[in-house]
Amino acid sequence: MQADTASRAARSGPSSVPWIWPRLRHRPAAAVWTAVLVAALVFLTTALPLELARYQDTALDMTLRQTSVTSRSVEASPPSGVGVGVVPGQTAQTPVGPSGGAAMQAAMATAAGQVEAQIGAPLRIDTSQVSWGIQAVQREGNEVGAPLSAPPGEGVGPAPDGIAPHLSLVWQPTGQLTMVAGRLPTEAAGADPNSLEVAVSQATARTMGWHVGSRLLAPEPFVYRGQEQLTVVGVFRDPSAAQSQLPYWAGTPLLGAPTLYELSNGGQTLHYWEAEALVAPGAVRALPQIAQPAPYWWFPLSPGSLNAGQVGPALDMLSSLTNGDRASTLLSTSDPVSSGLMVQSDLTGVLTQFNAQRDALEPVVTIGVAGTAGTAAAVLLMVFGLTTERRTAELALLRARGAGLRLLLRRLTVESAAATVPGGLVGIGAALLFLPSRVWQTALGYGLAVLLVATLAGPLRMLARHRSLRPARPDARNDLVRAKPSRRRTVAEVFLLVLTVAAVVALRSRGLAPAGGGLDPLTAVAPVLLGLTGALLLVRLYPLPLRLVARPVTRRSGAVGFLGLARAGRAGATGSLLPLLALLLALTTTVFGATVLSGVTARRVALTTQLVGADVRVDAVASGVPAGLATALERLPGVRAGTGVLTDPLAQLGTGQTVVPLGLVDPASYARVSASIGLGAFAPSLLTPPATGAGGTGGAGGTGGTAAVPVLASAGAAAEIGTAPTTITSLFGTMQIRLAGVLASTPFTPSGDFVIAAQTPALAAAHWPSSVAATPSAVLLTGPVQSSAVKALIAASGAQNQVDVLDRADAQASLDAQPLPSGAVSLYQAAALAATLLALLAVVLALLQAAPERAALLARLRTMGLRPRQGYTLILTETLPMLLLAAVAGSALGAASVPLLGSAVDLGPLVGSLDGTATVTHASPALHLLPVVLPAAVLLVLAVGVVLTEAAVIGRRQIGVQLRAGDEA
Description:
- By secondary structure, the chain is of the alpha+beta class.
- The chain folds into 5 domains: 1-70 and 347-476, no CATH class; 73-135 and 292-308 and 330-345, no CATH class; 138-291, no CATH class; 478-609 and 810-969, no CATH class; 622-690 and 698-801, no CATH class.
- Helix content is 51%, strand content 14%.
- The strands form 4 sheets. Strands 1, 2, 5, 6, 11, 12, 13 and 14 form an 8-stranded mixed β-sheet that branches. A 6-stranded mixed barrel has the order 16-17-21-18-20-19, surrounded by 4 helices.
- Strand 3 (139-140) and strand 4 form a beta hairpin.
- Helix 1 (2-12) packs across helix 11, helix 10 runs parallel beside helix 13 and helix 19 runs antiparallel to helix 29.
- It is globular and about 120 Å long.
- The protein starts with a helix and ends in a 7-residue tail after the last helix.
- The model is unreliable at 6-17, 85-99, 223-227, 693-705 and 916-921 (pLDDT under 50).
């Protein structure tokens, strides 16, 4: 009847009988599912460019916010060697009065305006935070600042290692200062002509012991008009944590708080304090007599003003400012402060590193996205194929009664658009609403393109099958077991196989993105091609396992199992091939993606272990960890194993040409730490020296017949030591050693070469004075110990300035929080999840397509005595072979893709790095059981749940309803 109505409509014209609404009312579920599917696919297509841009923009914003303000700013200064100019009408030797100070500030503001005028788009400067000033820093060898002394009765401040505090002078506008004591320095009439007024921060005053009225003496040439006395006239408030990130304070950090500097002298590390003090603007013109003045201007980037799409133009602008046309313009400018300006910026390095990391991540992310796109395409093809199969008889009758292809195309397109256009518009609207982004025009274009394909592909596919008027043979079978592939299909499959082999070979030989060549689309879709080839091969071989399973079933009593397998073999090729293709693509890409993600997690753990060497590590800054503190650390709650290590990073093997880190350890506790953290486990007995005397091994060149100390070494150090005893010279003395074993790594120095010896015999062999206690250079702790407890104990002991604490959990959190890698991992996870859900949707649609026929069959069989439990068995036997085979084959393909393709995938960019201290240069995913088995198991369980739900729903329906007259079989 449906076909008769359609044929009359086709003959009579478009206005005689309505076409669209009767068909939509006849199968409302099919229209709704089509709309939902199109909405999902269009949403994914539209959301992809939006989410890519959003995650990159967010990553860039987080990168810039995590970078110091000076590294994300443009800095201007005069060329090297050019000092402060002279205000018109004055000389360098003439004191500058208040009017001169105002002129200086005006000159600095004018120069700032000249630089701002040259900074163009896309760089946008936060004008409210532009900062400038003039700094005078005396440099003598490795020392920074001028050493101070004090008049009789005055204190100069702390002098660790016997070195007096050093001071530099700076002038900045005082608008951001809040005085807490005294006043700002001035150069007004009546001021003491023999004293230079300065102001310092609260932290500087507290650390140095200075107060308002403190007097300091500076040596030549740190003088001002012959004056050698500095007087503290004011103390201003310390900057808050937020203020310290502003250019005003970050550009001159010593103005806010002094710093303890290190000074290397004859192999010794000495320390001294360095501070800065603020002077009056009127004192600026005399700074050339004090030290080389250095004017500076800081132009910070406005937060959130730069997106990832503008990184390239921003680098071009910075290049022009630092070494281009704009740089030439700035050098040719002349102002009272300097003759020309130069621009430099660490922002160039930050953006270049961001660009490199983004380019490195792009190929890996593309693999995940390609897998989802392939699965989506398979699901869409499946829907078109199922629709074509369902309407074959109707369209064949219409063609036989004279309906033209153009008329059918027009009406089928309108019918398709009635379901796809609303769903597509909902998908596009949802993506644009929930994922606002700068690339919305591109995303809109992608979404409309997929919507157009979804609308036209179905009608074109149906008409392509019915372009000929020749009817199909009534006895022709198109099931998986009996269907014979056409020559064109065979040629297409061979071409696909060749393409897959070419993609795999190219991927293994050149990698995902050859150097300088960008991303190769062929290599990026290699996992998808692998899954597609596997699906076609599985369809070719599908009858064989089905026959093998059917043989034992046929010998059993009962017809349920045999009937289920027979129906599985009689399933249509279209309704089985395309769901199988979607399942295999989803499983292949999901297994490969899960392996990649588990590899990233494992590599991050290995990287943090390589950096720390324990769960918590306490390193001495200078002389060593106090012995009492080391013991207390090892007794903290949660510590499973702890040990102290004496280290010398520059020990010399043999003649001194080979330098290698030496660690002196307690064998028992160090072996427990090594085993607990998984770095170079060994037996403590290996480090136990043999008894001296008759059984001892005399060391050549030793004294008193002392046996050579046994050591464990890395492979490189072991090659230098050799099989014969040799000597090693360190901070602890010279001793003779022999090789007792080789380790791949060790906790005290997880990367590079090393030598380990037992502490007590080694110190004895090196003639270390027994009266001098050897304090450990590092304490290694393993177990669920909290770094907060470690830091609290260190603070309670008063040793917070003597040690540094490294926590592996903190390092892991730092890796996990890195903007670009974490965003790429999240995107990869979302792509794998979307592929899995699409594959499940394919299974559901395939089951729904066959549900009416299956319901009618069960109803008829129940009239002949089929029990409900047998109905469940029948449905499972019919549907499980394909699902089970797809799960096994998908997992196998995913597992095979790891050795085939994994060597070309670099996980290093996904892992990230820790400030350059530990970096994964290249890491390939490794095959693990859980990522291979888990996706298939989850998908299989969900699919079986859908099947059982369908069987339960069918079981509750009335047999009379299923057997009513006119119901389609």
